[in-house]
Amino acid sequence: MKILVKKGNLAEIKAEAIILGLFEENKKLFGLSYDVDAKSQGLISELISSGDFEGKESQLSVIYTRGLIPAKRIAVVGLGKAKEFKLDKLRAAYAKVTRHLRDINIKEAATALDFNMLPGQKDKLTQAALEGAVLGLYQYTPFKTVDRDNIKDIKQLELITNNEDYPLLGDIAKRTSIITEAVYFVRDLVSAPANEMTPSILAQKARDVARRKTVNCNVLDKAAMKKLGMNALLGVASGSAQEPKFIILEYSGGKKGRAPIVLVGKGLTFDSGGISIKPAEKMDEMKTDMSGGAAVIGAIMAASDLRLPLNVVGLIPATENMPSGTALKPGDILKSYSGKTIEIVNTDAEGRLILADALSYASKFKPQAIIDIATLTGACVIALGDDVTGMLGTDEKLKSEINDAAQRTGELVWELPLWDFYSEQIKSDIADYKNSGGRAAGTITAAAFLSKFIGDFPWVHLDIAGPSWLDKDKPYIPKGASGVPMRLLVDFLINRTKK
What we know:
Blueprint: E1 2-7, E2 18-22, H1 31-39, H2 43-49, E3 60-64, E4 73-78, H3 87-103, E5 108-111, H4 122-135, E6 156-161, H5 166-191, H6 199-209, E7 215-220, H7 222-228, H8 231-237, E8 245-252, E9 261-265, E10 267-271, H9 291-305, E11 311-321, E12 333-335, E13 341-343, H10 351-362, E14 369-374, H11 378-384, E15 389-393, H12 396-409, E16 413-415, E17 433-434, H13 442-451, E18 459-463, E19 469-470, E20 480-481, H14 486-498
Parallel strand pairs: 1-6, 2-4, 2-5, 5-6, 9-11, 9-14, 10-11, 13-17, 14-18, 15-16
Antiparallel strand pairs: 3-4, 7-8, 8-11, 12-13, 15-18, 19-20
Helix pairs in contact: 3-4, 4-5, 5-9, 6-9, 8-10, 9-14, 10-13, 12-14
């Protein structure tokens, strides 16, 4: 959907529909809603006085204007109680209303915002409303052929403002368009079936991003990885007919030589579990085991398009994990890129193996920080549910920055402890470490394993096993691929530039 910012008065805009957000206790209209109500001869106040609209969170009513104002419809959406108002409620409300308008075949709409909702936060309010409006409309349809002509979509949303706010809102709309486009890109990567998103295809998607002048892409093949000694990654890949790829994306927006932020994303394009094979139920969803890698590629794409003044490196170890006569076996020992040895006790604990090589490789860049993102453990879903990302790490400042970005974007994280004694569970009798510490504290011991491969650099691990893929719709995330935590990463990078 295209976002346009226009100068004008919402009540005088010609549109198929205009959108207004109202709080629950708004018995007396003011500001924007008062203006529209007055010029439409009380249509909104009549709706409220009749009891048909109370302003509860994401409650929706559509009023037909009968020619009283240029817009054909007024879509009013509830924001809940003013004292409980949060940006995520605004995202949810705008997602609800744009989805409804799409469903009744509206092609274009207009809106304006009352900035008294959160005084002094015009930028945050605008971005949240636009994010909700766009992200809630996502559909994955490339393989739909039956009734394809009936797929509906909104083509354009106009944001109406006064002369004073026009430059600011224009910049925010541009920024939001870049971020939401990157979220769509990530959701598309994750939604694609595994036969259409192999390691080679994922690498090509990264090369497409690198068509930007400020981004460079280098893809290591199996021979190059073998020469480097990336045997943990190659061990996971050994059972698949698809050749693994190690994707290196470098965005150079900062001063030459300045230490980059390194983002490492798990890129399992399909995970059968290998010899320790998974149950058949929901194995189809294992195409999403590259969600971390997709988020990293999307974050690099957005950073470049936003022209952020910093350097960012994205590392994505990409492979399948398949059972075959050549596959990795329980009991095998691998020598990783770092030189440390790993005993394989469970071939379905493969994500940490490919990340071990990637995290060790990250030290080459002498980064100011390392953040890895992975659909790593089912244990994280048991601990935190489907809506929250598990966060562990070694640097308090970095964890605080990530949590602040999570609060701003609504892509929530919760910290789990990483005390030294958890490492006892991953000690091996015959190698340096084993790749699984058992069921107890599974998310934490997986992070403890990763911590052995990062060196002395500030590091945070994000386990997105829960929120990366949804079994049911959320307010502005339709069922399926969420794109989490791409917006969080971009917000973190934007705020790093301010520091």
